[in-house]
From TrEMBL:
GO terms for molecular function: methylated-DNA-[protein]-cysteine S-methyltransferase activity. Keywords: DNA damage, Methyltransferase, Transferase. This is 6-O-methylguanine DNA methyltransferase, DNA binding domain protein. CDD domains: ATase (cd06445).
Amino acid sequence: MSESPLVKRVLAVVAVIPPGNVTSYGEVAKVAGCGARNVGTVLKRHGGGAAWWRVVRVDGASHDPARAAEFWDREAIAHANGRVKMHEHGIDARELQELME
């Protein structure tokens, strides 16, 4: 079964998040043209090969902080108590859009 246009858009945005950076579900949603919950659903259902650990809540928290921490450590993403330091590693929709071009 082929992926929907929404799935393709969300995964394309997630694919351009550089290693060592994170963004929020909402920022991905702005670029993909959907809601933040849609981004979470797409990643849950179709994002097995995507860098899901680079997409976090606006407060830097992950849905699976124990697993995400392994990836954050590999990419030198500063984190504590299951949350990344968004002010150090976060990128916004404008930056994501530039990376898409």
